[in-house]
């Protein structure tokens, strides 16, 4: 992890969190500015609303009072007029009480010059005094208000005989007070009716929380007086510092002023409670959002890290290697950089003999060793299984070789400290970035190069030769489909002959590709390519069908049948799984092939491949259930143990050519015992790749059943095989 920690991940995370912080601060500042601007304009708007509210309310109260007064005044005036034209004897109590009922007056009476009042009962006590204090009632109409008593309307009556009287109408003071109080300021503001002339407050709203003393009120009134016009609303500050709006409306035809005083934050206070709830909700949502975003960011970082981390070694994964490698090499001269691929040779056997846990420890150890040997800026990654990648900053190929050798030695030195005698080797391929372009392409090309490495060179460098091979690979891949359609793949048959002439001959079907442009292409070239990309599956089935067709033709032509074996690639087996035989059965069902005529050649590696006896059994039994025989091809080439043979129902054992290439006494003994063992398990034995007559003689003596090799014949096209067979039969 040494090289990993500081680089890409941390840097990116730091960069991101810096950007995030700047964004967050900018957003916060923007929100604050918007919030502040909004608050100011909101307050201004609220003030305007309050101003309008208090003004409209107060005006309404003032005009209602005016109206009420006008009604009273007009009634009293009309009544005075009526009286002046009416003989006095008609003025009876009944007449007055009828008049009173018609309007909402509490009392109606006439005051005469001698001080008498008619009807006397309608005159409250305080009124005589009031009459004395207001002598002008004899000259003009008067409207007045006596606190807690009445509203008084008077109008002088001028009789024709020169006598004078005054009509006095009383209205319940509550009717006016109710009007004054109608302006509802929710006990925060207050409404007043003021007599400007006497400087007397006629009605005051005592319920208000706003404590306005008389003095303060007059002061406000004075300020108002200085302002021009009626209906002014102005702002004032109370002695206790409270800001208020004051509205003044004159009550028409009187000296009265209807005043309203209301705190300027009247509405704000109203909505403050709601605002508080709203703010609390906003804060809660913000906190929740913050927590959520924090959590998401953490998760995101975790995932990001996981996606570039390889769990076993804790180092860079393949994706991490690509990301950081691309970043590190950006802006550099690409030929300075080289991607090196290391694949531990035969790691499978380390896993099998040491166990998976120790195998993992070994991989971790190798990772640590490699990461200890790279320089700053360089990278190491375990991409999968036993595959490692290095990104080295090294211009000279010889230097790359030297460093790889040093790494191998360092790894093996440490391994030998623990397990003397033991050492591991790597298949190593490398590709320069300037050849490949990007890091991922260089990785693929390094893998490709590693496959061409041999024991003589430390590392196989991707070069023009390899590039040509890759090109050829790609070309063959593109030609495949059309060639299957055009049946360019041909069946060649190689005879298998009984050395003792005790049996009829058999044959193995081997594929040859006759391409109209490319010419003959041999399986050794194209099979590994098609095994890589899975095309081998369709090729296997194609060959099987061709063989079925051939046997079908032989049957129709009434020829003696020759048993034919067909190869099944281990990659096909891996791809199709234990039910692979079903694919073959579908083809077989289309032809009428007798049982036991076709034999399926499975390479002995299937015994190791899955390492699962039930799997192999299912495959073998599946084929046998369709009337197909089963052979183990290339037996002895890999590491299968002879003892495993007894577990499986195999019809034929094909001994690999390697037994017969550099023969010696030892190998001959092994061949002899394999034949014996196979026979004891009821298997036929075929020896492959036999080229010399002496070998035939030896195998005959050992009891080998069939021999396949150039000693009898090379693989032949079907027509030539037919001829060969006729000759052989003769
Ligand atoms: P194999 O199945 O072990 O086939 C035997 C190979 O040994 C054949 O090579 C054959 O021509 C060669 N051979 C036979 N006798 C001698 C001899 O005396 N000396 C030498 N030096 N070689 C001999 P071929 O046809 O090139 O096939 C190579 C391999 O390709 C086959 O090995 C098999 O694994 C694969 N293959 C061939 N045809 C098919 C096919 O249709 N399907 C699949 N999956 N694989 C095939
Ligand atoms: Mg074969
Ligand atoms: Mg073989």
Secondary-structure topology with pairs:
Elements: H1 2-6, H2 8-85, H3 93-102, E1 107-112, E2 117-118, H4 125-133, E3 142-145, E4 150-158, E5 164-172, H5 173-182, E6 190-195, E7 200-204, H6 214-226, E8 233-237, E9 243-250, E10 256-263, H7 266-308, H8 318-329, E11 337-344, H9 347-354, H10 356-372, E12 379-384, E13 387-393, H11 397-418, E14 426-432, H12 433-436, H13 439-451, E15 460-461, H14 464-485, E16 489-497, E17 506-515, E18 519-521, H15 523-533, H16 535-556, E19 564-568, H17 570-576, H18 580-588, E20 598-603, H19 606-609, H20 613-625, E21 629-635, E22 652-655, H21 658-661, H22 665-680, E23 684-688, H23 693-702, E24 706-708, E25 716-717, H24 718-729
Parallel strand pairs: 14-15, 17-19, 19-20, 20-21, 21-22, 22-23, 23-24
Antiparallel strand pairs: 1-2, 1-5, 3-4, 4-5, 6-7, 6-10, 8-9, 9-10, 11-13, 11-14, 12-13, 16-17, 16-24, 16-25, 17-18
Helix pairs in contact: 2-5, 2-7, 9-10, 15-16, 16-18, 18-20
The protein binds ligand C2E and magnesium ion (2 copies).
One magnesium ion is lined by residues 508, 567, 601, 633.
Fraction of residues in helix = 40-55%
Number of domains: 3
Average pLDDT, rounded to a whole number, is: 86
Find the CATH topology of the largest domain.
TIM Barrel
Give me the count of strands: 25
- The rounded Rg comes to 57 Å
What small molecules does this complex bind?
ligand C2E, magnesium ion
CATH class of the largest domain: Alpha Beta
CATH superfamily of the largest domain: EAL domain
User: What can be said about the biggest beta sheet?
Assistant: 8 strands, mixed, barrel
| Second-tier CATH architecture of the largest domain | Alpha-Beta Barrel
Category by helix and strand content: alpha+beta
Beta content comes to 15-25%
Instruction: Based on Cα principal axes, name the global outline.
Output: rod-shaped
- Spatial ordering of strands, largest sheet: 16-17-19-20-21-22-23-24
Number of helices: 24
Distance between the termini: 74 Å
Low-confidence stretches: 1-10
